[in-house]
Design brief:
mainly alpha; 2 strands; two-stranded antiparallel ribbon
Length: 163
């Protein structure tokens, strides 16, 4: 190998290492961010559900407003659905990680180029990971939508109270 070829090879290896490092760091950031988003959605929907339960308890405690309590229970369904969706999203997030790891472990490692190639099993794991990823994202967005719909339902229910 000529000195120029060696120099090019070393430059390529540095560039490959930098690209791999960037992908690894960004993947870690994306994973932490998605976990934070799911935890936030869990807390927001759970907190709203607790607040509605507390509000209903205060309505039931007031003889004049006791009859209005059932109208305030409708938003609970949305907040509970949001909690269920975000919990399922977290489960699908785990399945995405598991399937991605399984795909990497199922790859065909070789001593000739390409050194790592997809096997039939790794392709199936990648497809499963993609489906789980899409489902997790959809459930996360549903959880957010459920929170907003629940909040609109709360507003409507409060406006209908006989004050």
């Amino acid at each position: 190998m000529t000195p120029e070829q060696q120099s090019n090879k070393e430059a390529a290896e540095r560039a490959h290492d930098a690209g791999t490092s960037f992908v690894s760091q960004f993947n870690e950031f994306a994973d932490r961010s998605s976990q934070f988003a799911l935890k936030s959605l869990f807390l927001v929907n759970g907190g709203a559900l607790i607040a509605i339960l507390t509000f209903i308890a205060s309505l039931i405690g007031n003889a004049d407003l006791r009859s209005a309590a059932p109208s305030v229970t409708a938003p609970m369904i949305w907040f509970a659905a949001g909690l269920g969706a975000v919990t399922a999203a977290a489960a699908f997030g785990y399945l995405t990680s598991f399937a991605t790891l399984s795909a990497a472990a199922a790859a065909d490692f070789r001593w000739t180029h390409p050194y790592v190639a997809d096997s039939k099993a790794s392709v199936r794991w990648k497809q499963f990971a993609t489906v789980c990823h899409v489902v997790a994202i959809a459930l996360g967005f549903f959880s957010l939508a459920a929170f907003w719909i629940g909040m609109l339902e709360v507003r409507t229910a409060i406006q209908s109270l006989p004050f």
